Here is the input.
Amino acid sequence: MTISSSTSITSQEEGQGLSINPQALVDCLPALQYRQDTLCIEDVSVDTLVEHYDTPCYVYSKQAILEVYHEYSDSFAALNHQICYAVKANSNLAVLGVLAEAGAGFDIVSAGELSRVLAAGGDPSRVVFSGVGKSLADIRYALETGIACFNVESESELEMIQAVAEQLGVQAAISLRVNPNVDAGTHPYISTGLKDNKFGVAHEKAVEVYQHAASLPNIIIKGIDCHIGSQLTEVAPFLDALDKILELITELKELGIELEHIDLGGGLGVQYIDESPISIKDFAAALLPKLTELNLSVWFEPGRSIVANAGVLLTKVEVLKPTEHKNFAIVDAAMNDLIRPALYQAQMAIIPNVLPTNSMIASNTRTWDIVGAICETGDFLAKDRVLCLAVGDILAITGAGAYGFVMSSNYNTRPRAAEVMVSEEQHQLIRPREDVQELFASERLWEG
Ligand code: LLP
Here is the structure.
């Protein structure tokens, strides 16, 4: 069994697992490279990172984040636009700070995310507040902070915003999040624009809700919004959704309701292994003709596409457990660190820190399930991967910059991983590994 030396990223032979060619994959990921067969993130070797920060450890490339952010802003430069990074994808203050400094706006879904944006130096006047369940306290905090706009998802939310704005004696800017009933063609858990989903106001009801909004004294209608799902690899669903929104804009205009912006949400997919999602440039080229004639400011809420491939999760092989039916490689990261494979059957690439030599490949390669130490069968990071492994090896799970650390937990009383940022040859701890004692320091024994 040999790992292909061709440029194709994956190969799979009958009865064997998925083999990923690490060099070919890394050639597609600007943040990563092998130098003298050793993995580097920007100009810092994984060896150096592990020496300083141990494993499991998330590492993010500052330049990779900025590169994608600028690709968005350059691709839409012909229009008045705003890129509101979706904070939920990765909310570490360092990540938010880098984007704030570059001029990004932010898409938030909680008061907590708003606090983070402010702590990172983000400008509240570039913040848009999405989400189906904003509380009165969330709305008050957002109005006091002076955010740009609420993306309203229901009539009752509209009433709540009206009530809080009236109490505070302010005007609240809103967009309606319209559910266009478009199939995003993605995993059902991350599809949001179908009428069965809890999100947004049905396309057919939108005009009525806008008219209601127009009658409310403390509400100012600013825009229209939609977000149809995540990890979309094709442009067609975006165009279908846009067409539905354009129809509504025309209808609203006829009723005297003029908008200032259109928010097309996030959702652009990334390459995890060998997917080929539409590039940001091609995405822009497809949308621009329709958007240019609109003459509205265009907002986007990208999350995954900005940070996913800027990040890796580094993990160490602790135990190798070949059995008669399956070979298990037990690593020091687990589903509590990275839940995407367990929750969405997400396939993420796992590549070695050091490229194996041909003789190592010939003698040590097997098909492994890469699993964590948690007491759940669902605790896996990848299944059936052809890898050449030894205890103590360091592996990198790529594409882990988005929905990685933010979805991590302390299940099994496991301290959450460290987070590190790299820029050129510099590296810095941006969140220390949690300490077991601090996990239960605020708990109290029953004293009754
Ligand atoms: N705007 C809204 C209103 C959203 O709900 C989302 C994501 C985004 C923007 C950003 O979408 P993106 O550009 O990142 O696709 N945890 C899942 C993904 C959940 C996405 C939720 N909403 C995963 O790991 O795949």
